[in-house]
Amino acid sequence: MKGFFALLFLVALAFLVWPYTAVYRLDQALQADDQQALNELVDMVAVREQIKRKLNKNVESAIGDVSNSFIDWLQNGIQRMGADAIEQMVDIQWVVAQLRSHNHKPEHGGILDRMTYAFFDGPDRLLLRIGELDDNPVHAHLSLQGLEWRITAVYN
């Protein structure tokens, strides 16, 4: 029985550590500017979908409160580009720019040194905050998709 609890403890510990390995891989991909790894770690369809859901007040979104600058950016894009604005504006380069926005080396910087919060927001979701609360931080959600943790929402 003691062995069973020890095994159960190790499995729980491994599950708790697992998403943080994805955060580390994300940091390494950002520092190396590894586009293939970044594409594997970011679910662009989900990121765009969450932004669209946030715009629709009748639908629940995983995105929390957003900054005025984020709302202004979206409104300007929609006014200029129309209904397809999200698809045109939100791409992997935009996600990378958001993740690096608080970094002193925005060309090849990672996120670990600027991350101020990283904890579970549910059993299959990890919430990251990059930057200080009083400095318009960027938030990213990592969600468990199958056996992979991927970014499914980015906002500030």
UniProtKB/TrEMBL annotation:
Highest taxon of the lineage? Bacteria
InterPro entries assigned: DUF2939
Question: What Pfam families does the entry give?
Answer: DUF2939 (PF11159)
The name this protein goes by in its record: DUF2939 domain-containing protein
Organism of origin is Candidatus Thiodiazotropha taylori
